Amino acid sequence: MADVKLTKNELRNQQTRLAQLEKYLPTLQLKKAMLQAEVQETRQEIHRLEQILAEKRRQVDEFSGLLATKTTIDPLQAVRIKHVGKRYENIAGVEVPYFEGIEFEEFTYSLFETAPWVDAAILGLRALAELREHVKITQEQKSALEKELREVSIRVNLFEKILIPRAIENIRTIKVFLGDQQLAAVSRAKVAKAKIEANKEAAESRNQPGEEREYA
To answer: How far apart (Å, rounded) are the C-alpha atoms in residues 133 and 83?
Structure first.
């Protein structure tokens, strides 16, 4: 406030700044609303995936006793992850990761030399591993969106609570000062005019001839 110049040029600058702030604020507010919706949707997706993961873990646990059984292969070797696929999308200005799939290390075994339950165990373990990676990437997605949401929220609050009110107050202060200056100038002009008129009248009075007197 102390740095604001009480001039017409500064008044125009503050008015331009206010117009720019008020023009950009709705864009920030829209971005904030979009991010809030995306964060909420991602949280719901994580909750859904975690429920599926819990159910799949329960199913795999049914094989836990069998996994300790000696077989010609180790089913856990079948879930070595080779690559986790993900893509990035720009959501409201932030790059967000999305799960695309998972690729396991090559693993082969003889169907005739292994117990019948091994196939189901491998499928269950791989499904469990895939769900875990899906949840992990969706959590990364949520973190990226929440980080951007925090930053945008700070900017919205800065605009709404500091920058715009400050510009409005600066404009009001400058207008009051300039208005007072204008009134003072008008008052001085009136006083000067009155003095001029008074001086003019006095001069005219001095220049008038006196009355003639008669003497006996």
So the answer is: 11
Q: Which residues make Cβ contacts (< 8 Å) with residue 160, sequence separation at least 6?
A: 25
Spatial CB neighbours of 126, under 8 Å, sequence gap ≥ 6: 78, 79, 104
pLDDT tens track of the chain, all 216 residues? Answer: 457 899 999 999 999 999 999 999 999 999 999 999 999 999 999 999 999 999 998 888 876 666 666 666 677 788 899 999 999 999 988 999 999 999 999 888 766 667 777 788 888 889 999 999 999 999 999 999 999 999 999 999 999 999 999 999 999 999 999 988 877 777 777 776 767 776 766 666 776 665 554 544
Please name the residues in contact with 140: beta carbons below 8 A apart, sequence gap of 6 or more: 97
Residue 50 CB: number of other CB atoms within 10 A?
Answer: 14
- Model confidence, pTM: 0.76
Q: CB atoms < 10 A from the CB of 142, how many?
A: 19
- Using DSSP's 3-state secondary structure scheme, residue 86 falls into strand
For residues 35 and 148, is the Cβ–Cβ distance under 8 A? yes
Which contiguous run of DSSP H or E holds residue 103?
Answer: strand 94-104
